[in-house]
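User: For a benchmark we're assembling, each entry needs the component sequences followed by a predicted structure for the full assembly. Here are entry 17's components. Please fill in the structure.
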Amino acid sequence: MSNTEDNWLLKVNNLTKIYGDYTENSIKNTGPEFNSNICPETGSIVACADINFELYPGEVLGIVGESGSGKSTVVKLLYFDMEQSLGSAFLMPHLDGLSNILEESNQKKRWIRNYLMGMVYQNPRDGLNFKFSSGGNIAEKLIMGGNFHVGNIRNRATDLLEKTEVPVLRMDDKPASFSGGMQQRVQISKAIANNPPLLFLDEVTTGLDVSVQAKVLDLIRELQQDLGIAMIVVSHDLSVIRMLTDRTIVMKNGRIVERGLTDQILQDPQHEYSQLLVSSLL
Amino acid sequence: MNILEINDLSKVFNLHILNNKKLEALKSINFTVEEGEIIGLTGKSGSGKSSLMKCIYRTYLASGGQINYRSINGMVDLVKATDHEVIELRKNEITYCSQFLSVIPRVSAVDVVCENLFKVNTNKEAARYKAKGMLKQLGLPEELWDAFPVTFSGGEQQRINVARAIITSPRFLLIDEPTASLDPKTKDVVVDMLLDLKKQGTSILCISHDEYTIEKLVDRRINLHMGEILNLN
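Assistant: Structure for entry 17:
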């Protein structure tokens, strides 16, 4: 795998999400220079704007920033959980990266979501159906991905639960009866069920206690090493970013304020806000 | 042929959170490294040795000048190269070995040593076999191989750090104080390992305060003082 210029997996251009009515000034008059993402003219909220980046196959990109910086919005737009206001995104395995996935029909978006992407949310309730068993949750994703053979589905679910160290004996239990860390691991199993080339991880360890956090992080690292899945890791926690990512984007007030190699961002941050963030690291 | 040519390199830290305080770490640095050469970087603490190394590895962004590196695929200015270009070079050619081991927690000593090898070689067992051979050579007790290095002594961590850096036989090695916390016998082992690498064609930039190591290891010294090169000999 050589990372030449055309070898990207995901390419994001000018991705923007604004809540409420906006004018062309809404983007101009918000951002880190104004320390605000609320448009002074219309009162619209600029959740993120002018987001541009490329992700290479097998690469792990971190997005870091404080609450409300727009980092989760970026991955939610790319996973079609929200609709963008402006911008485009291209995914190489979908029509050779020539078609803007954000403008596809709902049917095609569903296909892309099920075959080419996985998402792990901070709150397992967003990613799992708590009325289904943990095995059933994985089966749901597998069925969406075109697997209909019950035996195969069960085998794959068993493999995934073993890989993520969820006791297979509890495959038929509902995730509601699981601990937070276990729920998160079921969510990861579900997200990678169809071997997607791209995985989004949105604050996946936030709220877990330290030893459980460690296990979830170890699992993510292992999956990345063994399966070579490209990932976008959204976190406000620089230790998570340091442990998992190669490159990092720093966001503030809905904008990218700095991007670079993760060790550079952590040891020689350039932007005022990145410096503040790094100096706040315990 | 030169593998590295540094022209007028400078580094200034601009600390926004301290009222835009400016710290000048490196001033108009010029030197070259020939292929297969070992250069010792000497100077007092705070003279800019590590900053220079980190600029070359791109952990620090240089403020001015050029760092021209002759990669297998041609010349690259490491000051201006894209992040992806740097990632590729780090994976295939340039290795940095920091002064202190900083490792991912909960990874065994053997796997820490293998980390860079895992990136280019998918055969994990072969990689671990090689790593164990190196740890044996460096005299790390066998019972520690499967343990987590976080709790190891300074000298034990140091040996893991060195093994990890040289296991891939990089083309260009940046190594910071490789022998600082080692006993004389292990020092010799490390020096011999680095000289072996040189025989295989590796070019090395080595920071050291240890006169013994410098004496045995390097072809040439560069002495830094307050961010400037004092002498080139």
